[in-house]
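From the methods appendix. Each design record in this collection lists the tokenized structure first, followed by the designed amino acid sequence. Records were kept in a plain field format so they could be parsed without special tools. The example shown here is representative of the layout used throughout.

RECORD:
FOLD TOKENS (278 positions):
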């Protein structure tokens, strides 16, 4: 089964993302391409001089005209592969995607050919308590013990760090699901597999209220199209890379609003404009 890996990045992370790119290139089965989309000009970084990052062999840089913000990691790929049944696996530039990560998506795709596949997904009520979840059943269920740093993960993590003291990893991804099922909103940092026709055509028309909360916007556009989001069981979320969270949007504010307020605003926009989650 063929697929491509798609992502984007920002200038302040150019020198930090190489470990992530190397892990993506080494995924098996091998992707047809690992594509890094970079805009000619960044809205957040107007002083960027246009110098491109040094990337490992096997990574293709596409310089594109439009800056979609964090959604650039998938929207440009949707355009490039429009009209095909290409599986696009998009992800963040600051995570450790261990061996077997991509294979887990391909395995889930065989069972769920018409669904968005995400290793991490949440109910919309986590973003807006008054919102209504979609009617897709069954629902994914978290393995809560896996979020406990004192649980079994702690022992292997200590041993792994002792063997690899210089590796730029700062902590294990601890969340996993014990029951596969549907979610309302996927979380892109863990990786998401889609196809170009999984989203409503308006997916490219990001309103300012949703520009920095791409997970809510993209999940909403999949819901508008009628595409379910499926979370497979027993797949641990990716690990974190040291220092790679530079200029992370979830740590900042936009127009005076923190991340929680931005998520809520995006949900309310989608409710009012498209009638979902109501």
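DESIGN:
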């Amino acid at each position: 089964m063929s697929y491509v890996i798609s992502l984007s990045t920002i200038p302040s992370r150019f020198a930090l993302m190489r470990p992530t790119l190397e892990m993506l290139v080494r995924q098996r089965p091998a992707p047809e391409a690992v594509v890094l989309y970079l805009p000619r000009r960044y809205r957040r970084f107007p002083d960027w001089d246009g110098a491109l990052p040094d990337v490992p062999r096997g990574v293709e840089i596409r310089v594109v005209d439009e800056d979609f913000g964090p959604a650039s990691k998938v929207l440009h790929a949707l355009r490039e592969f429009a009209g095909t049944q290409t599986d696009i696996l998009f992800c963040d530039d600051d995570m450790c995607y261990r061996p077997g990560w991509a294979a887990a998506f391909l395995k889930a795709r065989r069972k769920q050919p018409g669904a968005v596949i995400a290793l991490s997904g949440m109910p919309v009520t986590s973003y807006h308590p008054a919102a209504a979840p979609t009617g897709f059943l069954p629902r994914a269920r978290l393995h809560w013990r896996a979020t406990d740093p004192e649980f079994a993960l702690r022992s292997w993590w200590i041993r792994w760090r002792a063997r690899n003291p210089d590796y730029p990893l700062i902590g294990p991804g601890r969340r996993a699901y014990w029951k596969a099922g549907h979610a309302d909103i996927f979380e892109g940092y863990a990786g998401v597999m889609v196809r170009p026709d999984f989203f409503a055509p308006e997916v490219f028309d990001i309103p300012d209220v949703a520009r920095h909360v791409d997970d809510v916007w993209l999940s909403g556009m999949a819901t508008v199209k009628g595409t379910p989001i499926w979370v497979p069981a027993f797949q641990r979320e990716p690990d974190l890379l040291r220092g790679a969270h530079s200029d992370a949007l979830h740590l900042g504010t936009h127009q005076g609003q923190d991340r929680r307020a931005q998520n809520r605003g995006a949900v309310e926009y989608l409710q009012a404009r498209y009638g979902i989650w109501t």
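APPENDIX NOTE: The domain at 3-274 is CATH 3.90.550 (Spore Coat Polysaccharide Biosynthesis Protein SpsA; Chain A).
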